[in-house]
Write a structure and sequence with these properties.
two-stranded antiparallel sheet; alpha/beta; Sirohaem_synthase_N; 5 helices; 30% helix; 158 residues; EC 1.3.1.76; Rossmann fold; Met8-like; NAD(P)-bd_dom_sf; 2 domains; five-stranded parallel sheet
């Protein structure tokens, strides 16, 4: 039986977060991470318009370069989200060797944790995860929760 991952919420606001990649998946990751991190570094020779725009904010630094091993030196959490499977694999292996928490977008066996579907409503954060088995199902459930917002004002105790 394959092990399941323990759902854990922890403070990453002051962690040194690195995202390698500037495409669609990296952009989705960055947009969610900005809700939880004070500072993110993105390494990508090219980046989406959204990452380019977000990099004008102090919370996101986009380095318009190719990944190098020394980019990991200051990182505590790394997201490998390039369109190059070999590069993602290399990043995952280097992080494992250096005991840096890593999420590899296209290889769940290299992940220390999975990136959840996230719904945020006021102070409530819902994380949805299928252990990498079904990203489509995670997305479907996230969209359901997003569409069926809870009126938190009516659920609070006085």
């Amino acid at each position: 039986m394959r092990k399941r991952y323990f759902p854990m919420f922890f403070d990453i606001s002051d962690k040194k977060v690195l995202v390698v990649g500037g495409g669609k998946i990296a952009t989705r990751r960055v947009k969610v991470l900005l809700e939880f991190c004070n500072r993110i570094v993105v390494i990508a020779p090219e980046a989406s318009e959204e990452i380019r725009a977000l990099s004008k904010n102090d919370s996101l630094e986009w380095r318009e370069v190719c990944f190098k091993e020394e980019d990991l030196k200051e990182s505590e959490i790394v997201f490998a989200a390039t369109n190059d499977k070999e590069l993602n694999h290399e990043i995952g292996m280097r992080c494992k060797a250096s005991q840096i928490l890593v999420n590899v977008a296209d290889n769940r066996s290299l992940c220390d944790f999975y990136f959840p579907g996230v719904v945020i409503e006021d102070e409530v954060v819902i994380g949805i995860n299928t252990g990498g088995e079904s990203p489509e199902k995670t997305k479907e459930i996230r969209e359901f929760f997003s569409q069926h917002r809870i009126d938190l004002q009516n659920t609070k105790k006085s």
